Amino acid sequence: MGDIFQPGKHLTLRNGNTYQIYGMLGMGLHSKVYTARDNKTNQTLALKVIDLNHKNMYVKASTISRRQSFQNELRYLLRLQKTNPYIVRVFDYDIRNTGIIAMEQGLPLRQYLPKTNVPSGPLLHPSTVHQMWYQLVDGIRLLHQSRIVHSDLKPENIIVLSNGQTKIIDLGVSFTLPRMVSAKRRIWAGTPDYSSPEMHRIPKGVVPKFGYKSDIWSLGIILYEMAAGYRPLYGLSTNYEKINYLRHLKHDLPIDQNLEKGVYNALTQCLRVDPKHRPTAEQLFVHPYVVNGY
Hints:
The protein is of the alpha+beta class. It is 30% helix and 20% strand. Helix 3 (212-228) packs antiparallel against helix 5.
């Protein structure tokens, strides 16, 4: 997917600022993320780069979809800069043959979690779990106030800054809901471990219906992993098995009863199989575990 930028390369973006590439931070299906320096301020930041102009005619549809995803993400990020402090800050961008977003740099939440998904105990201190949970719930609360569903919440799409603040990233598959509407039918795209059951239920061949409450489920899975050190579906090895399990899930997801009381209670609410029985982000924000940490 496009050329790899080598360390030392300089890029000039929309605001006229020039950025020097230091190295690559990570790579996704359609994007690469680099660590770079703003030559004007000397600030270290992240550059997310997506190739928007593929020359191969056989991947034209994929290229169009990629461009739409990038434009979607950039539009939401810019819209949320002044209203949601938990959305990653954008400093600059460019959108020509290559889409580039210059933004805050942090460590993915994934790096704070166990590397193997087995019940081996958490790595995070309970106070850190609560601090991160508070910020994530507040971030999604503000996102939903803007009528935006993230739809792909997972540790890879959350970064932690050096001061401990969490930031939500990657809004490429996010979508807006009309007022008084809490869900709509659309094609699911995401990671099975963090996806809600309704994302995989396809009645009579139509696409699934999901919305705000799917984000609540994903938040619950993230809290589960932070507090317990593993994900609930750890016993299923393939994505097919996970999707099939969620599609046919009839009862609320089983929860480790060794978890702290406050965590356990929050999870029983977030991981209810029927989205109508899950709390809204506003309701979750006043839950005792969010407010008091227990």
